[in-house]
Amino acid sequence: MAVHPASNQSDPFGFGPLTFRPDGTFQISILEDLHFGENAWDQWGPQQDINSVKVINKIFNKESPELVVLNGDLITGENGFLENSTVYIDQIVGPLVARNLTWASTYGNHDYDFNISGDAILKRERNWRNSRTSPMISGPDAGVSNYYLPVYDYGCLSEYACSPQLILWFFDSRGGFKYQQGNSTNRVGQPNWVDTSVVDWFTKASTSLTKRYRKMIPSLGFVHIPPYASYALQDAGVDPNKEPGVNDDLPLAPQAQGWCPDGRNDGTCTYGTQDTKFMQAISHTEGFIALFSGHDHGDTWCYRWDRLLPGMDVTPANNVTLCFGQHTGYGGYGNWERGSRQVMVSKDGLAKFEADTWIRLESGNTVGRVSLNSTYGQDLYPKTNNSMTHCPTCEY
């Protein structure tokens, strides 16, 4: 395992450090499950990519974030060819480059397959100066998209002279299949959880940041596949007025699904518990406000994890909120209306470990606007309307 230095990792191409707006706010837009590159050999597949680009443009006609997060499953890797599996990155980021928006990625299970890898996607991303995807740890089991980005006060020109006000953590939940191992009809499965080497890196890096800046810095996290705690919370019951959002993927698919505790994935086990160390880490890191996931296209709620849950042995010391995004791309399963989760933090809110979030839909409407504060889970909100997309070119 190799750990890479943090200096300049957040800005490899000189785009400037991430900073708050003059009014003390910082907005993030999450694009989830884009699934570009499906069925590239027929008319249907490329049409879905065209539709997905339209969604991205519609979102950013309404929202103006400081950072865009591409939170996994950028590409449907099982449909990709070795020679050109990553060219879809150019289509994905085209609307962002046109608006001079900067982005950061995590990679998901469909981004890893026989003809595609996180390394190859990262290489393609680095053709664009707007990308901040900057791995800080490498190793055979780490995955690729593990790193953090600091966010500074407005007016900060150099990360060497400023103290971060917010830390954004990015985790690679891996999954899918190993690149060029086995053969195209007998692929080798890859573990679908955040590896223990990454958890160790996160714990050490978080402690180091606290020591370096002599303060606890509030943080948010992003990972494609949700942890098992999301599954347990859903099983406990999602209240449509207390945790508004679509709850159609029931049960959801967590990290370590389909694996055995001994590491086998031969179809004999339903859940292997390998994400326990990751859940322990995020729920015991002071100031870790929320973790944002995708993967389950039919789930869009946020739930405050504040207690020991049935079937688990992790009791959270820091009450982290677990959130789903909104299925953004026309690729991938489901006909829920496409959209993008927005996250807004303010310096005043961060002092109380609070964040606001809502979902911007392709129609232009917003749903699920909530405040992730100390009373989230008790406050009542309007129920989210479960709107669907009418798409004559789609096959559901």
UniProtKB/TrEMBL annotation:
Xref: InterPro entries: Calcineurin-like_PHP (IPR004843), Metallo-depent_PP-like (IPR029052)
CDD domains in alphabetical order: MPP_Dcr2 (cd07383)
Gene3D superfamilies the record matches: 3.60.21.10
Highest rank taxon of the organism: Eukaryota
Pfam families membership: Metallophos
Residue span(s) of domain Calcineurin-like phosphoesterase: 33-131
Ranges in a coiled coil: none
One GO CC term on file: cytoplasm
GO molecular function, one term: hydrolase activity, acting on ester bonds
Region forming the signal peptide: none
UniProt protein name: Calcineurin-like phosphoesterase domain-containing protein
Organism from which the protein derives: Xylaria bambusicola
Taxonomic placement: Eukaryota, Fungi, Dikarya, Ascomycota, Pezizomycotina
